[in-house]
Specification:
It is found in: Cytoplasm. Pathway: Amino-acid biosynthesis; L-arginine biosynthesis; L-arginine from L-ornithine and carbamoyl phosphate: step 3/3. This is Argininosuccinate lyase. There is one protein chain. The protein is mainly α. It has 3 domains: about 100 residues, Fumarase C, Chain B, domain 1 (Orthogonal Bundle); about 240 residues, Fumarase/aspartase (Central domain) (Fumarase C, Chain A, domain 2), CATH 1.20.200; about 70 residues, Orthogonal Bundle (Ribonucleotide Reductase Protein R1, domain 1), CATH 1.10.40. Helices cover about 65% and strands about 5% of the residues. It is built from 20 helices and 4 strands. Strands 1-2 form a two-stranded antiparallel ribbon. A two-stranded antiparallel ribbon has the order 3-4. Helix 2 crosses helix 6, helix 2 crosses helix 20 and helix 15 crosses helix 16.
Amino acid sequence: MMIESEAHRSKVSRRLQDETAQEICDFIYLPRLADFARGFPYLTAINQAHILMLDAQALIPSDAAKTLAEALLQMEENGPSAIALDPQREDAYFNYEAHLIGKVGLDIGGRAHTARSRNDILATMDRMRCRDLVIALLDALAELRQTAAEQAARYVDVVMPGYTHLQPAQPMTYGFYLAGVAEALERDAERLAGAYGRVDRCPLGAGAFAGTPYGIDRSETARLLGFPAVVDSTLDAVASRDFIFEVLGSLSILAATWSRIAQDYFLWSTDEFRFIEFPDSVAGTSSIMPQKKNPIVLEFLKGKAGHIIGHYAGAVSILRATNFTHSGDANRESISFFWGAADDCLTSLKLLRLIIRTASPRREVMLKRARENFSSATDLADAIVMKSGLSFRQAHHIVGAVVRDALDHDLTADRISLDMVQRACRDQMGREIALSEEDVHASLDPRISVASRRDGGPAEEGVRMVLGKVQAKLDADRQDNRRRREVIDAACRDRRRLMEELAG
């Protein structure tokens, strides 16, 4: 009988007699190995927790557990760069295992895979990595929320026109705007924090999908990895990555939030608006037009939001046509862009914080525009209602006629007179109303308009009320996130101590 050369056989299976095709190595396995270094700490932690559990349950000989513990600690110390990566071994786990077997031999090294599968290992790695990313995102969001709140308090008195449909609507303040931004970002943080509880479950011990006949202790491996509980169904444990889709969906909503904010700044920084000035340090220029000061950060933020939303749509499109079990398209391809998307979100949150921190409002320009562009027209209608007793709809018709008259005569809002109002009253109702010149001018003053809107509105006391609640929630959220990190860190210290004791 002719014995085939080892060089022409699969490096991971005796069922497969041929080497993996080069195209598969180049286009599938090698790209996956490019992320080996980032996954290495999670794979190491999982291996350590599993060995400790196997030893505690007497599922492998104690001397083998000791040798494995020594080798795993040494591999952790040497780091991922010490492991030679071969795409013929398919993925991170097989390359890691091959290095371990090379250190301790097949008999001992091969025992590390007792009672588990790559499926539950990969699911656990995904949850651990996603868990760390959510914590990092919540920290970055907290920094952004803090900056928005601080700038809101700083600019609480900067009056500017507010817009609906991108048309002048009602006066507000720049601080009021930023307080609203801080509250919206608070909900983005709440969505991520809510998702964290569903990420924070351990699938290890599920095996390929049907569990294992060995007497393992899933709760112990979960504890050693900092998880509060396991995913009960072993099928669901390996079949599902909905926790990633939930996080990615939350990031898509967050991206829409930051893109809308960036769009406001984009408009406000144009020469046509001139509401906001940015320092030169956050601007770009033109290769041909020397006058240019381009808003490169804002364009980056708006464009990156489209990428995040596109990744979510693409991921769900891949998942929808897969079976409810483990498969490469369901659990690898569908989430392959998630890690980069999460990194992009971290970057974008830092850049948006830079924008909010460095943006300087042009106070006089903002106030002048609010005085001139009819954004106080609603206040004039309110004054007519309160002073004359007319219905609001009657007042609305009168003020609409006044604005039309002003536009026809090229008059700005601050030049509207009592005579114009009374003329409109005669035209609309056939009579004049009880209203003074002072009433007209006061109602059209955007500063007075702002000061009158207290309950959650742009008045200083209203903004500071909102900011008080925003700050209290932010402080509580930060404490919650510190506790999340502390639980993981404590588990890591305990796991390390037990490994060192086992290694002797």
